[in-house]
Automatic annotation (TrEMBL), chain A:
It comes from Pampusana beccarii (Western bronze ground-dove). SUPFAM superfamilies: Ypt/Rab-GAP domain of gyp1p (SSF47923). It comes from the Eukaryota. This is EVI5 protein. The gene is Evi5. Residues 1-29 are annotated as: Disordered.
TrEMBL record, chain B:
The small GTPases Rab are key regulators in vesicle trafficking. Pfam families: Ras. GO terms for cellular component: late endosome; lysosome; membrane; phagocytic vesicle; trans-Golgi network. Keywords: GTP-binding, Lipoprotein, Membrane, Nucleotide-binding, Prenylation. The gene is Rab38. It is a lipid-anchor. It comes from the Eukaryota. This is Ras-related protein Rab.
Length: 327, 212
């Protein structure tokens, strides 16, 4: 099966990167030697990846816990792919057929490509590899999911997936197009199959109906304040849902939330949302609409720059009734 | 700082128009006096504040609501439009399709929002990216005047966020019309394009809005 051969190739790519790891890692850490902690975590994740089927069946809870602590950077690509358990994927030929077609959303997509991570090295150059691949995946998606087509915000999610595999994309043509094809499949598997209704502007209206219900329960005082100020959920939470916080927080913070999103689904977005509001409740209660808009735009995005652990811990303190939300 | 006899007006202004026409760039230019070709796509809504000393007695606080271009496809615009006093509708002169969408944006606006006196909110049309050297509009000024008249815009400007062209002027035009519609709630002023010669004492003229 293509997926298997490919995950092997991904694994071997990861493996080879690991073996020559010290040179790669030295760019991020001062010393060329891995710390013991990092090494332990690599050994642990290496084992999880190699024995994935088994580990997932027998140690589901432990894997979840580990993901909540953050997947090591070099394992993200493979672990995300395993987590979304793409059982089958459109054959590469089908993907290249899609790219030959014309999508009604093409112009719209094209317009946003340069405006997705405009500061990031992989995407910032006009007609760069990053921009080309991002366009291809968004176009393929728009042809598969004709109802949604293209929804602003989704390119940030695909962009994050591409960042994780950009080393592979840079290698050689067969690997590039295969990886591109897989990325589009991750995306489709996660968003088209799992959350079709929440993943477009019309669908998100449902989310904006649920979210206030959750607030009413957890933050009654703030809920009343928002109501009295006509402060609508969409005014601060659009980016939470349309980009899974990728345009709300800096990437190191948002990527940690995204790890959990890949493993546990949309619930984490609600949890983090409530946690953010709880942590800011005292300030928000003192502010009017204008002040709140500015607080959400200027203060909250950088609240967790020192590390997302506090936010993730707080989000798991939130009592979340999954059954109730499903209704 | 504020003098005792100074009046402060607070106006909420909407900036709407198709995706990628330069709404965010216009606001950043107007509020922060700078430009970057690398702004991120706006998701949902962004917000900025601009304070103008209008005249010796008046300070104007503008709340600028930068609404994502794809919002038209959802029903969210309604909540953003609430209590707005004026709007800029922006299109990109290099892309005719964004001009064709202008009437849809105007209809969306007027169907969801009216002033307390029942009139539509003053709206100014911005033909953005005029630095790109495409002169279609310059030659079609009369057609544009006609378009504004037919679609109920109080004025139009060729703008460039990049070169800082006409953005302050467009804003002064819009604010002037808002103040006029406020001070004369029953008989709000006629757009100049209908009666450009109308310059009587009571009615604020907006001839400055239009290039001759």
């Amino acid at each position: 099966r293509l997926l298997e051969t490919d995950s092997k190739s991904l694994r071997s790519v990861n493996g080879s990167r690991r073996n020559s790891g010290s040179s790669l890692v030295s760019s991020s850490s001062a010393s060329s030697n891995l710390s013991h902690l990092e090494e332990d975590s690599w050994i642990l994740w290496g084992r999880i990846v190699n024995e994935w089927e088994d580990v997932r069946k027998k140690k589901e809870k432990q894997v979840k816990e580990l993901v909540r602590k953050g997947i090591p950077h070099h394992f993200r690509a493979i672990v995300w792919q395993l987590l979304c358990s793409a059982q089958s994927m459109p054959i590469k030929d089908q993907y290249s057929e899609l790219l030959k077609m014309t999508s009604p959303c093409e112009k719209l997509i094209r317009r946003d490509i340069a405006r997705t991570y405009p500061e990031h090295d992989f995407f910032k150059e006009k007609d760069s590899l990053g921009q080309e691949v991002l366009f291809n995946v968004m176009k393929a998606y728009s042809l598969v999911d004709r109802e949604v087509g293209y929804c602003q915000g989704s390119a940030f999610i695909v962009g994050l997936l591409l960042m994780q595999v950009n080393m592979i994309l840079r290698m050689c043509e067969p690997l590039k197009s295969l990886t591109e094809c897989i990325i589009s499949w991750w995306f489709i598997a996660n968003f088209y199959n799992s959350f079709p209704s929440s993943f477009c502007y019309n669908g998100i209206l449902n989310v904006f109906f649920f979210l206030p219900l959750l607030f009413q329960e957890h933050l009654p005082e703030l809920y009343v304040h928002f109501q009295s100020q006509s402060f609508h959920t969409s005014m601060y939470a659009s980016s939470w849902f349309l980009t899974i916080f990728l345009t709300t927080f800096p990437l190191p913070v948002a990527t940690r939330v995204f790890d959990i999103f890949m493993s546990e689904g949309l619930e984490i977005v609600f949890r983090v949302g409530v946690a953010v509001l709880q942590m800011n409740q005292a300030e928000l209660l003192q502010l009017d609409m204008e002040g709140m808009l500015q607080h959400f735009q200027k203060v909250i995005p950088h609240q967790f720059d020192s590390g997302p652990d506090k936010l993730i811990q707080a989000s798991y303190q939130v009592k979340y009734n999954a059954k109730k939300m499903k209704k | 700082m504020q003098k005792h006899n100074q009046k402060e007006h607070l106006y909420k202004l909407l900036v709407i128009g198709d995706l990628g026409v330069g709404k965010t760039s216009i606001i950043k230019r107007y509020v922060h006096q700078n430009f970057s070709p690398h702004y991120r796509a706006t998701i949902g809504v962004d917000f900025a504040l601009k304070v103008l000393s209008w005249d010796a007695e008046t300070v104007v606080r503008l709340q600028l609501w930068d609404i994502a271009g794809q919002e038209r496809f959802g029903n969210m615009t309604r909540v953003y439009y609430r209590e707005a006093m004026g709007a800029f509708i922006v299109f990109d002169i290099t892309r005719p399709a964004t001009f064709e969408a202008v009437t849809k944006w105007k209809e969306d606006l007027d169907s969801k929002l009216v002033l307390p006196n029942g009139k539509p909110v003053p709206a100014v049309l911005l033909a953005n990216k005029c630095d790109q050297g495409i002169d279609v509009l310059m030659n079609n000024g009369i057609k544009m005047d006609q378009f504004c008249k037919e679609n109920g815009f109080v004025g139009w400007f060729e703008t460039s966020a990049k070169e800082n062209i006409n953005i302050n002027e467009a804003s002064r035009c819009l604010v002037k019309h808002i103040i006029a519609s406020e001070s004369d709630p029953v008989q709000s002023i006629e757009p100049d394009i209908i009666k450009p010669h109308l310059n009587s004492s009571k009615i604020v003229s907006c001839s400055a809005c239009f290039k001759s």
